[in-house]
Design brief:
The chain has 3 domains: 62 residues, no CATH class; 52 residues, no CATH class; 119 residues, Jelly Rolls, CATH 2.60.120. The chain contains no helices and 21 strands. Strands 11, 12, 14, 18, 19 and 21 form a 6-stranded antiparallel beta sheet that branches. It is mainly beta. The protein is globular.
Length: 266
Amino acid sequence: MGQGQNLLNPSLYVAGLPDTNKGEQIRFLGNAATPKSKIVYISGLSNSRPVVTRADLNANGANRGPFFVTVTACLAANTPIDCAEHSLVSLDTSAAAVNDPVYLSATAGDFTLTKPTGPEQPIVVGIVLSVGTTGYVWLAPNHFSRWIPKVSTGQRTNVIRHALLLDAGVGDYSFVLPVDVAGASYKVVAFSTLCEAADAGATARLYKGANAVSDALTMATNKEVDYAATIDSQYSIYAPGDTVKVTVAGGSAAARGVAIIDFMLV
């Protein structure tokens, strides 16, 4: 298993340590002085280079993706700043629980563990990975359960991506598909795993009830991504309200990672 290209997002991969656990870095220009670990969006061009501005939940235009996480700082406008599509960030999570959502804040560039109350709908930008005064959150604003416009090939133009934390080794992990899209069904178009901890022999497989939707993906190599070579079309269609299950088998409690499931409305 090598570090390959994600089926829908070629920049998605995982590194192993907190100071390096971020996606492929992309160099933009900042529209103003911007610290590290802020949520930003592409707001324009300067000298033929994209410019990023701090995202803001309640500011029109500043709450539309794609979003990025700053992994370096810039000290002034039109100076380089490095960003990534996901990053592991230290945060006081003592009042939270593992797998709690992290939201885009109405304070420009910030994220919060408190669900915003409006006027805009909350936008999930990450999840809590560990609890404590020096806990960690995984910021991946383009990869969680919200609509992402895609302009790639074929019919993959409206894809919902769900990130499911696999944090307790062998066993079943599940979530329920939203029912806010009347009359729609969800078709699995991609399934991948990102391994945070090595555990030789551990595999992850996507299920619909008792039926396997994907082949088994290895979770044995740290810092890498594995992809389902086969999605069984017979079982790949889910209805709103259906339970989606990922089973980790063949390993121990040491096996940890994230499962990424991409659905297309059909």
